[in-house]
Amino acid sequence: MKRKTYFGLNKVVFTILFLLVSTSFSIAQISNTISEVKTSDARERQDLLIQASLVQSSGISEITLFYRAFGENEYTGRDMDLMGSYATYNIPGNEVIPPFIEYYIQINFTTGQKETYPMDYSTNEVPLKIPIQSVSPKDQEVLILSPDVNAKMKLEDFFVSISLLRASDDVNKQATKLYVDNYDITDMALFADDIILFQAVNFPITLTPGVHSLKVEIYDNKNNLYHSVSSSFEILPEDFKMIAKTDIKYNLTLQGESRNENLKGTSTWYNNVNIDFNASLSDWVLATRLYLTSEEKKYLQPNNRFLISLSSDWMNLAYGDNFPQFPSLILDGKRVRGVSASVQASYVKLQVAYGEVSRNVEGDFIQYITTNQMATNIITLADGQRAEINPGTFKRNLLSVRPSLVFDNTFQWGLSFLHGKDDVNSIQYGAKPQENLVLGTDFQLGLDDRKILLTAQAAFSLFNSDISTGTIGDDLIDSVSNSFNIDESLLRNLKNYLGPFFTVNQFMQPLNPQELSTFATEAALSLNYFNNYLKATYIYRGGDFQSFGQTYLRNDIAGINITDRLRLFENKLFLSIGYENLENNLQKTAFATTSFKTFNTSVSYFPRHDFPGIVVGYTNYAVSNGVDLLGKDSVKATDDLTNRYSVQLNYSFLYKVKHTTALSFFFSDRQDKSVYKNDVQNVSLLFSSNSYWTNYLTSNFNFGYTSSDMKTGQLNYFTFTLGGKYALMNDKLFLAASVNPTFGDFERRVVDMNVQYYILQNFSIALQARYFNNKDFKDDTIIGLMTSYDLR
Amino acid sequence: MKKLIFTMVILLFSVSLLFSGNNPKSKNPVALITKIVQDVKVKTDENDWTNAKPAQLLESGNEIKTGKKSLALIKFTDNSLLRVVENTSLKIYADKKTATKDISKNTHIDKGELGFEVKKQQDEEFKFTTPTMVASIRGTSGTVEVYDDGTSLLSVETGEVEVNATLGDKQSGNVTAGKYATVNLDGQLDIKESTPEIQKKQEKTRRSETKKLMIKTNKGFIVIEYYE
User: pTM for this structure?
Assistant: First the structure.
């Protein structure tokens, strides 16, 4: 008898379904660049995948995701991986903290222009929110003994084993339900005291090779759902090539794409190839990546990517485009093309990164200048003549080193050094090459299993904004010291001591190191007791602090940030409160000092079953510089107050079939009391629903309403998305289509179609077509052909 | 009609399951075998030594032994794991406390070697006994080995273990992460820093991957799976 086959998804299919269908939260906003952002299940301490679908990728130089947890005073900026028409970033699990994560996306174009998603973030600074569901103590009541999470096994080795040893007395163990890929297998399981067993090989069901999901639902004595836990595992194909198989595990993924974008009447072809190869032997892991794109241009920063890395428990060595992680004031989130390494022996750890952070792109000569005209784009050429140019970009190399002492998770102390310098000879037409030196130290002390955690870091930077003239000559020291009113001997000492390492001249900051303008420090103390997480942070960042390894740091700011998160009722209820008070103008160089006061509060309720998860948030943000609004300097006065309210609901329920829904409401009101009266009101309502009709058919419906009222005018629009996905031919063929009309002040209709066919289980080809019917300009089309091959 | 057939099939399966060799009529299982490579045998109250099968449930008092190039993975109901490597024989004891949802475990090793990863709660006990020592695990991973001469070796990768010699001098001590202890027949306890050789043993017990060899014969393929 032929065995019934169901849900035979290999990993690639699973990933596609995961991203395209099973996403927990999907947000559609109006953007010229991003059509939709989807996220994976947002659960505490689990990686959170953010995927932005691009309307068009032409002219994009980079896409950066900015995100922050509740109460954090600033966003973390991370470059998203650009692959064809998607940009993705995986927020590490340790940064995924309830009650929510706020984020926005910034798109940088090759023309130098920038755009944000949501588009109006640049004016109202209202980020998007992803509610984070907390872990539950009830998770410990259901122990999945087999298969292990993400375990890979042959079908013959597969069986499910659940232990309810720790289940509460309120649980009716016999009522437990087991699902594999949403297929109820409870009736085929054996219940033996605390253990429940299911053996697939004994039943007329075949799990085909690929990734599968396992879900366990336990019910209370009144037959109400008490809790559920999920896991995933992978069935390996029967492969007789295992003869003399070595201990080396590997997988190779090849992806190719050819895409035509016809935008505003201009047709452009894009071709991309991505190759990932990973291999492991014992605790050694080799990872390589090569991404080649037709968007690689000599006159732009690199779009191609390559990386080869080797790592083990005690060392890591990488060459290519990598993102070394040093303390956040030194080097963090910056792409370095070069070598990075770390090695740990006993309690000593050494990290090194060296490479190029920007490559040389030649500028353009415009004309010779014979007058005394001064401008930032007028330079003196090597032959002494002055010329007006379109400045290019100098090649910039960076070296960073950090030795540290590490005692498990208890104690850590490190010293950091970073030096970055533009290569003045790398281009002919460039202006103001720069140099940067940063010295820092960081410290971490964790007590009582890190329930008490003290972290601190400090850094001092030297920055030279123009090294084209080199180190200052002795003859110029007198005049410079007079001009800047600093001690001549100090400048001379600086030149003598620093000269061998750093270009000392009148463009260096600080010229007087006794000033704290280039000093930055942060210290935080967190206490995690009685289900209460309290964290207090102090930051100080001088106005001139600069690190070439940190692009997204906010300078000229100091103050405190206090957050408190209380978990109640077995993590079902979260109460969060935060207060931040920051001030700028630390060196008293500005006309007035501006204070930024933020009060944040949030209540989250995750009942886990039979009721929606709710997150209600309120933020009060006040900015004021104390200048009299009616006085003579009223044009310099800043005094505005922003109130933000948000309600988000997530609900999964069964009505005939399973539905996953999300509803969000945001209201933001900024009242600007200054003479500029830049009042902004913003309202948005978003609803999304995914329905799982059969194992093969899913559908989604999204609705969004956004209304912005600004001094410059109003922007109101509705947007709908209706889509569906269907699997045919025993999961070999996937069809997906959606329509997305937008009405109001922004009118557009988008039709999206995807067809993916699996020629082999690990080899697929996909066709994607998008049609944009624009109201005020010519229609756009995007047609792409993608292929993917996976070998392991 | 289809429903009737389906129900019959389910009933048939349930009955066959209850009487199948894979899942003996275990009343109070405390552990199960999650992986078997080559020669693994189980002895229960009802049956003398029989070949073990994957997903076989184990009760308190059951014995397990492994042959050459063999491996057995055993999981207790609290998800604690034993990796029993070749030529090892042991007996498991467990006492479940329904009120506190605890299970106290004791594994007696006659000879051979195993690795452990303990997932116990605060008040639960997890002990290893050998002919020469009692080791109380405070968590969380390491190895236990009993040599042919009766000497016991315990290494700790993470956590801490209290060791008491049961013979002669009856010395005792605590073995912390990165150290190992030997207990001889005279009851002498010797605690030392871990060596590359010990780390190799730990690495060996962590491995549960197997190799397969396929031999083509006139009547088809013979597949031999083995643990190196």
Answer: 0.71
